């Protein structure tokens, strides 16, 4: 079965069941907007996710427009304006968008064999840093800014739990989590904040010897990066997208689309799965979830 035959088969399967009784559309001329947060650069993002967008377009029989941004504030402005019908972002983005803009989680990533990810603090094995409290007066490097769930918010939470608060250490930022780990390896920082899977990514292991590093502290495993939909979309449309994306991992052709996006699968997910993130976010940012921080 080639890709087009696979898409046609899946569309007919979905249409025949309770998921779809009539074709769900936004409007006759309005495309469905798929937004991807700037986890990677624009060119890479389009290369990774364009096949997935084309697949959805074939299944839904409706134009699907893939969008991303170069800078996070531009992406977040689009979330605030509810531009995206289906959006992929980090756990912090989801918690805030669910509270303020009515987005509903439907799926989460499975990457590198795991559908969970933990926040972590990483140091060199030869650093003589053995407890979180040893990071007092040291340089801690965070990746991606103050809205990064694992590499900043969870890492700050781990520092607080270890008795290390703002002002006790030197706070610096790298452009992304992989760069924090690489910089720590080369002793440009004493510790890095990142998701626990980041150290095993190809763009890290190909550049440094990770056997020289260790996890100083980690959170419990928590649900991976979410995919959410606008709450006001037709229920049939939300259900059809969820089923179509979840079924990608059930076929050879679908697995190729996922592989292109560097994913193993998309796992059905509900809002309460992100309650642990909410607790950590409140501890770090308070009950407003850092409303003054996210738009910067």
List the helices and strands and how they pair.
Blueprint: H1 3-16, E1 32-36, H2 42-60, E2 64-67, H3 72-80, E3 86-88, H4 91-101, E4 103-110, E5 116-117, E6 119-124, E7 139-143, H5 149-161, E8 170-174, H6 177-185, E9 191-195, H7 202-205, E10 213-218, E11 222-223, E12 226-230, H8 235-246, H9 252-260, E13 265-268, H10 275-285, H11 291-294
Parallel strand pairs: 1-2, 1-3, 7-8, 7-9
Antiparallel strand pairs: 3-12, 4-12, 4-13, 5-11, 6-9, 6-10
Describe it.
- With 296 residues, this protein is an alpha/beta fold.
- It has two domains: 184 residues, Periplasmic binding protein-like II (D-Maltodextrin-Binding Protein, domain 2); 101 residues, Periplasmic binding protein-like II (D-Maltodextrin-Binding Protein, domain 2).
- Strand 1, helix 2 and strand 2 form a beta-alpha-beta unit.
- The protein is globular.
- It starts with a helix and ends with a helix.
- 43% of the residues are buried.
At the fourth level of CATH, the homologous superfamily of the largest domain is: Periplasmic binding protein-like II
Mean pLDDT: 90
For the record, the count of structural domains works out to: 2
The oligomeric state of the chains shown is single chain
CATH fold name of the largest domain: D-Maltodextrin-Binding Protein, domain 2
Please describe the biggest sheet, giving its number of strands, its sense, and whether it closes into a barrel. 6 strands, mixed
Shape: globular
How many DSSP-defined strands? Answer: 13
**Uncertain stretches:** 8-24
The computed structural class is alpha/beta
What's the CATH C level of the largest domain?
Alpha Beta
